[in-house]
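Morning. Coffee machine broken again, so started the prediction first thing and wrote up yesterday's gels while waiting. Chain of 759 residues, entered below exactly as on the submission form.
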Amino acid sequence: MRSFLLILATLLASTPTNIIAQPLPNTKALKLEGDIASHLVDGVDRFLLKQLDHSITARSRYWNRDTSSAAAYSKSVAPNRARLAEITGVVDSRVAFNDLEVIGGTSNGPVQGSSATFEAIKIRWPVIRNIHGVGLMLKPTKPNGKYVIAVPDADHTPEMISGLAPGLAVSQQYARHLAENGFTVLVPTLISREYAARNGRAKMTSREFLYRSSFILGRHLIGYEVQKILALVDWCSSRNNDDVSIGVIGWGEGGLLTLYSTALDERIDAACVSGYFNSRQTMWSEPISRNVYALLDQFGDAELATLIAPRKLVIEAAAGPEFELAGGGGAPAKLASPALGMVQAEMARAIELIDTPDLSPFNLIITKDGQGDFGSQNSLKQFAKDLGQTADWSAESVELRRSDNQIDAKQREAAQMREIDQHNQWLLSESHFVRKDFMNKLDTSSVAAYEKSAEWYRDYFREETIGHFELDFLPQNARSRLIEKNDKWSRYEVVLDVFDDVIAYGLLTLPTGIEADEQRPVVVCQHGLEGRPQDVIGEQSHQYYSGFATALAERGFITFAPQNLYIFTDRFRTLQRKSYPLRKTLFSTIVPQHQQIVNWLKTLDQVDSKRIAFYGLSYGGKSAMRIPPLVTDYCLSICSADFNEWVFKNATTQYNFSYMWTGEYEIFEWNLGGTFNYAEMAFLIAPRPFMVERGHFDGVGEDHWVGYEFARVQHMYQAKLKLKDTTEIEWFDGPHKINGVGTYRFLHKHLDWPEPQIK
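Came back before lunch.
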């Protein structure tokens, strides 16, 4: 900030005072003071918080509940249930199996403990492809014929809630109490919140680590763990008992999984959710492994509860897990116990949404003003009753004998993590074929046919991948002030209104000597991560940007350098996190900012509206792949120091350049693996010219991966669409920077502007 102000002061001092701050014609005087980039980010934050608030009432457009009967109700919410499965990644077929596998060896038998009332046995079961669930079966001495899946919190082991390992008071061992009352209890293992440096780099929890690769491949750690639970439901429902009752209970992360699993699978007769049920409006501040893209667009916890109706649901208002993550490369997070008032309000909202008492058999049980211990006897007793338990509930626990050969919980978790990671790497290897099938509706018989067929994909990209706010633009209300002038160009700060609280800001550079009736091409020059417009004009970070906005202006182009949102570290990353649950991304705001910039540029007398180009470095290159497909007024796009086999870069655990190891915890976009890699994004730019600028020693990737992905772009342009000279790649001997050789030639050629004569 200090350096920026010093630079600005120097510029102002070098420009005659009688022209400083003069606005452009047809604009108002810009009077905004301070760091405009900070104003911009703060405004978007306010905007997103309002959108989050609005999401509660906006969800009604997705629901059409028929409360005339239980059967009619279930049928009416089936589309909502299907959508929940989609966004949680519960999309893979589970492996069919006949029975649970009992785990034991010659020196370590399967029995982990026993008492007069039950025996605890190590079990394993297949779930998806090579992913298995592992955990315990608590087999009662006198079974009541009813089955419960007891899901621990992520920081608890199956043994802890079963009384076989220290860490929980007897009163909190809910799996144990249920087994002691005759229930056959199955306890799956969850991935923990162990916080550690990954590959010696960014620190994150084990749950975030697996979330990252899953997310971009259209899967989710939540989904994988739900699938493990539902595989147990498969087994329970296959028992030789036509009247089998199945319940699921959990606390903390186990409560989350209980809520999702029961909402998804109608075979579950009753659920008990403890220490989790809440308003999810601040889910952006929770651990990022809980992030479900588009969740709040259609679901809060109340809506999820309505998917459980008319089945039984106990909500236990109890203390939940509490901790804070500082970040360290992973996503910062804070988790606090649900406030009783919020729990009560969300439960009331669920009941109101159904508005039919017979279809909403929900019970709220409060422990010590909502902050007491989980697994209370009152909650367990109600849960047992909901499952048809007729015998009196016993709160007494008998002595439990633990085996001398206790399982190594860390080794077990490491094996579970390897299975999920290996599955994700397999999905990654298959993703090319998934995307190929997804894109098979493109018609390449002619350029005209192609453009028509690409519109469906453009709409999908806008709505499902990037996210789109259905809002009208505000009047531009352009404000400007002259900040520097010399014999070659004049430079203005420009601010435009976009939406309420959302502005666009950048630097416009006008070459000297534009004739009164002349219209010039424009190059929009986009900075990268933590950058500013001052970077691209050459006032700072010249080693990366080469002052390309100024260099291009001195070649006769009008240039505009926008301030994008990816600045101020966690401040902007939090904007992405606030966007995710709304079915939005950071680019849901950036795209309309750019559209408004282009709209305004087209009003300038000096601008040729048909010749407005985009050129971005690094995160600006990331923008070059996402903005021009949607802002079609951009007549071409140049991606510098970013183009890659993007899905691979995000999801691979085999390469050091992967975003699996870095601080970019917000960079993952939902299901690009199944929809749009960089080649597919470039397909949405076609037939407009497209170019990649790539330094051989740019650490964002390796040449062969860049070349592989670009070959796919080239094949579309040159082989299929017969566009021989509209796509190029320049390889140069250099690092992560603007090279400005081939790209400048490309701009001159496709913007029809003469190159300067080199003396």
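The CA atoms of residues 318 and 367 lie 6 Å apart. Going to sketch it on the whiteboard this afternoon.
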